[in-house]
Amino acid sequence: MEYKNRKGDTYYLHQGETKTGKLRYYFSREQSAVSVDIPDGYEIYENPNAQVFLRKKLPKVITESELAIVSQGVREYAQRFKVEIKKNTIVVFQPNQSLTGFEEILSRIPLLNLFEYQKKEAMEIFDRSTTYSPIMRFVLVDEETREFRVERWCFRGSIDDWICLAVSQDLSRLVKQYCQHLGKDSFYDLF
User: Fold this and answer.
1) Which H or E run includes 63?
2) d(Cα 49, Cα 158) in Å, to the nearest integer?
3) From CA 93, how far away is CA 47, in angstroms rounded?
4) Secondary structure class of 1 (helix, strand, coil)
5) pTM
């Protein structure tokens, strides 16, 4: 079994044994001598930083429409952010590298101004090498009423933790109210 991540790296599924003799599965960039299939009840998981894992299939707590609401809101208000489901939470990840800074560097290289295809290729390389950090999340606090709590990551030295911004059954309202601050200085004023 092989898997190609968003960076274009190929990972191969390996099978090994734990100290207690149980089977364990893992991905590596080294090709396996023996072909290994994904065991029943497992799935391939690639995190926003392009690391590849084999994990047990998780029960779906977040609906596709809820994920779509957050994904659309993030796309509308922020560039290059990623959205992922973790158990009962929709997590928004921000890029750790500045696209604006990279574009400024490219504009200072005279040949790249002449050849647009080279600029496009450089941007693709930049996108593949970008890393991400969680910045905002929408936590499902009540499965019956579909009530969500929106939280943002707090960067104050004494806190460094998630802080609650609001709770509501109207996920669209939370997305509209808070996603507009992603990637802006106003994000740090949210409390």
Assistant:
1) none
2) 27
3) 10
4) coil
5) 0.82
Q: Which residues pair with 3 in a beta bridge?
A: 11
Cβ-contact 165, 152 below 8 angstroms: yes
Length of the chain: 191
CB 41 within 8 A of CB 90: no
Per-residue pLDDT, 121: 76
133: which strand partners?
94
Give the alpha-carbon dihedral of 42, 149, 137, 173, to 10 degrees: 110
Asked whether 85 and 67 are in contact (CB, 8 A), the reply is yes
Give the residue among 49, 3, 47 at the shortest CA–CA distance from 25.
3
Q: Where are the domains of the chain?
A: 2-56, 64-96+131-189, 98-129
Q: What's the rounded Cα separation, in Å, for the pair 140 and 126? A: 34
Round to whole Å and give the CA distance between 185 and 174: 19
pLDDT at 73 exceeding the cut of 60: yes
CA dihedral 179→181→184→185, nearest 10 degrees, is -150
* Pair 81, 182: CB distance under 8 Å: yes
Sorted by sequence, the CB contacts under 8 Å of residue 122 that are 6+ apart come out as 106, 112
| Predicted pLDDT at 129 | 82
